[in-house]
């Protein structure tokens, strides 16, 4: 029982810290959302680990996986950028003319200010 509580606490601390570190200064609502999401995710992580039949801790393949992770991330991002750069626009998708879009946005903002 003590091990389960410790595992959940470690997952929870890591997930809350990661969430708050990524979103920056948090409002009370964001803090509550981060805590609730981390609580649910910690429980799910423990269930997944138990379903996989693994013990907590670092397995034999983790150091190698961490060593190749930066390369895999860079390669994946490069492939995604290349695919997006080569992609053709689907039918029916139009890009606004640069000289027209700012005027439309400006007019829409003026209407919002006048309504308020």
Notable traits:
116 residues, 0% strand, flat
Fold blueprint:
Layout: H1 2-23, H2 28-51, H3 62-86, H4 101-115
Helix pairs in contact: 1-2
Question: TL;DR?
Answer:
The protein is mostly helical and 116 residues long. The chain is built from four helices and no strands. It has a domain at 1-53.
Number of helices: 4
- What is the molecular shape? flat
Oligomer state equals: single chain
Mean pLDDT: 82
Largest sheet: none
Decide which structural class fits the backbone: mainly alpha
Poorly predicted parts? none
N-to-C span: 58 Å
| Strand residue percentage | under 5%
**H/E topology pattern:** HHHH
Helix content: over 70%
Count the strands? 0
Q: How would you describe this structure to a colleague?
A:
With 116 residues, the chain is mainly alpha-helical. The protein has helices at residues 2-23, 28-51, 62-86, 101-115. It has four helices and no strands. α1 crosses α2 (28-51). The protein has a domain at 1-53.
């Amino acid at each position: 029982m003590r091990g389960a509580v410790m595992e959940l606490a470690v997952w929870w601390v890591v997930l809350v810290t990661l969430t708050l570190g990524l979103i920056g200064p948090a409002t009370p609502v964001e803090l509550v959302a981060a805590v609730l999401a981390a609580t649910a995710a910690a429980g799910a992580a423990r269930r997944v680990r138990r379903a996989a039949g693994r013990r907590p801790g670092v397995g034999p393949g983790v150091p190698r996986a961490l060593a190749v992770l930066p390369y895999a991330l860079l390669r994946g991002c490069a492939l995604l950028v290349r695919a997006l750069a080569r992609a053709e626009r689907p039918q029916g998708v139009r890009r606004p003319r640069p000289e027209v879009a700012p005027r439309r946005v400006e007019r829409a903002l003026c209407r919002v200010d006048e309504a308020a």
